[in-house]
Amino acid sequence: MQFDLENLNPGTKFFFDETDELKGSVTIRVCAGDDLRAIRKQSSKKKIEYRRGQRIEYPDTNEVVENELLWDFCIVDWDGVLDKNGGNILCTKANKVLLMGKSPSFSKFVGDKLSILAELEEEEKEVLEKN
To answer: How far apart are CA 126 and CA 68, in angstroms?
Structure first.
């Protein structure tokens, strides 16, 4: 198995229409390991409470921030994502957040493809464990 140490998680391109690649695509990657820990660190704070003389510490996660960071990380690039006038929508963090938060069809497409990637990684892991 080969690894590109310069780019360990480049993403996978998924086409909106497998029969017509000109209709556009989204490049998606799974967020795991160090990247996921970094996002959780940015979106969470430790909250401390005292109850009956005991100190209780638990994470207080800002889910909105966490989702925005995850969407920005997982969606690497896109092509053929157009506005109502046919103009290209730039692949920016703001546009990723807007489409994932407000467009059910776009968020479903991305979610479905992330599930496929997770399944493929699990299959790859099983093959490596057998060897």
So the answer is: 31
